[in-house]
Design a protein that fits this description.
The chain is α+β, with helices and mostly antiparallel strands. It has one domain: Alpha-Beta Barrel (TIM Barrel). It is 26% helix and 32% strand. The protein is built from ten helices and 24 strands. Strands 1, 2, 4, 5, 9, 10, 13, 14, 17, 19, 20, 22, 23 and 24 form a 14-stranded mixed beta sheet that branches. Strand 22 and strand 23 form a beta hairpin. Helix 1 packs across helix 7.
């Protein structure tokens, strides 16, 4: 056997087999969805929708993707919605919107700035951003019916604070791919990715990218402590990033790897964008296992808080987590680790007010990998009742 063939077999072998630990998680997730019963979110009129945010088309200078190609890939990946973010030129007025192949397309733009970018979701008009600062651009976006978010948080100066922005991506696949291609480790990274192509049927095509971007998460936690600030996944799909003849980011693969799950009253553009801005959702590396059905709630007396909502602090305040597969549920308060508990059903008493969120980790070949990243529930002190008026 030649060394080249031996190398290919060595790369392909692990990718063509679903790891036993991950296979169990997938079976549990499938069983949980089959046994689905109405939960408090559904009784409150909130349904779960899965989508890709930050997607480029042929209207961007660095993508050739046609509307039909993207719609086909989105349908194949079982997405409910796609938020387009072509680079900000007058071409955005020609963007796809509405339902195509059963997928809702939401127009928008990526407005590049020094220190990151602005994702203007729902924006349909062009304006001149030159000479405007970050918050002035955000104001222009809002004036035209869009909602401003931050993109590429890995470049954003956290000392600016959240400004007028409603949230930011906590993972960016395009940035992760580019990071993997830098330096002397690029060959090993590409060989790893190419090797996993052989296992595309296992859903693990891009396992090397399933990881927590620690610096980005740290920045997001810092911004979220200042005021409500949503988290989502940036697909940042271009379908044009290659290494020689190898295309590293085809739409279909990117749409399957990591997605944003939203709880919304309807699969309509404004309803979804409002849910995204309110933090009613979570990020999931669905390539590991389907995360639909994950829930994070807070309870205190008669109060019930869902993702992105506020819970009054009290002696009986508690957080509830329901995961569709057994994993490690990790609790954070104000960005600081608090506890790790085995799932799938977890109840944690709330020790003190703060911005509480959870991460869920699964084992793949014995290694823990991030599966789910929730938006927070803000536990706030209860204001003391004013003294009763005298007679």
């Amino acid at each position: 056997m030649s060394p080249r063939v031996a190398l290919l077999l060595a790369l392909a072998a692990p990718a063509c087999v679903v790891p036993p630990d991950l296979a169990r998680a997938r079976q549990e997730s499938k069983a949980a969805r089959a046994a689905f019963a109405p939960d408090p979110e559904e009784r409150a009129g909130l349904l779960e929708f899965v989508g890709a945010i930050h997607v480029h088309t042929e209207l961007s200078h660095d993508s050739d993707g046609t509307p039909e190609e993207i719609a086909s890939a989105a349908r194949h990946a079982r997405l409910d919605f796609v938020a387009l973010t072509d680079h900000f030129t007058r071409k955005i007025t020609r963007q796809l919107s509405g339902v195509r192949r059963g997928v809702l397309f939401i127009p928008g733009a990526e407005i590049s700035r020094r220190g990151g970018s602005i994702l203007a979701l729902g924006l349909r008009e062009w304006f001149q951003p030159r000479g405007l600062d970050w918050d002035e651009v955000a104001s222009e976006v809002e004036a035209r019916g869009g909602i401003p978010f931050l993109g590429h948080l890995e470049h954003y100066p956290a000392e600016r604070g959240p400004g007028r922005f409603r949230g930011a991506g906590i993972v960016n696949l395009h940035a992760a791919l580019r990071e993997g291609l830098e330096g002397w480790g690029s060959v090993a990274f590409v060989l790893s990715v190419v090797g996993w192509q052989f296992g595309s049927w296992t859903g693990l095509r891009y396992l090397p990218l399933v990881r927590r971007q620690d610096a980005v998460v740290e920045t997001w936690d810092r911004l979220a402590q200042e005021r409500p600030f949503a988290a989502f996944a940036e697909s940042d799909a271009h379908a044009k990033l290659g290494w020689g003849p190898v295309l590293l980011d085809p739409y279909d693969a990117v749409f399957r790897l990591v997605r944003t799950h939203l709880l919304s009253p309807a699969r309509e553009e404004r309803a979804l964008l409002d849910s995204l801005a309110a933090g009613r959702g979570f990020v999931a590396f669905d390539a590991l296992a389907d995360a639909r059905g994950f829930r994070f709630r807070g309870r205190a007396g008669e109060h019930l808080a869902f993702l992105g909502e506020t819970l009054p602090f009290g002696p009986d305040a508690r957080l509830e987590v329901s995961v569709p597969a057994a994993g490690k549920v990790v609790f954070y308060r104000d960005g600081v680790f608090v506890a790790q508990v085995a799932g799938p059903e977890v109840v944690l008493p709330v020790s003190r007010p703060g911005v509480w969120r959870v991460e869920v980790w699964l084992q793949v070949w014995g290694t823990d990998r991030l599966w789910i990243f929730s938006n927070p529930i803000r536990v706030v002190p209860v204001e003391p009742a004013p003294p009763a008026a005298g007679p």
